[in-house]
Amino acid sequence: MGWLWAIIVGFVLGLIAKAVIPGKQHSPLWLTTICGMLGAIAGNAIARGFGVESTSGIDWSRHAFQLVAAVVIVFLVDMAYMATLGKKKHAA
Description:
The protein is mainly alpha-helical and 92 residues long. Helix content is 78%, strand content 0%. Helix 1 packs across helix 2. The chain is elongated, with a radius of gyration of 15 Å. It starts with a helix and ends with a helix.
């Protein structure tokens, strides 16, 4: 069940990150989901570093860290994806 939640959270975070980033992102949905999952993991680690491990109720600050991390990761991975895709198109 843990993997299913990780995929769902990664999917949602990845889609929100794509919506926040201006312009069109060309990375496929599976890559966006993986980036969202990595953003959730990185956001949890950053939140833990700031002393936000768990709170009563909804952990809004932890979710904010996850979203910011997902936005950064989706942006960087999309840039790398387009650079790789662009090189393949020019080589053909």
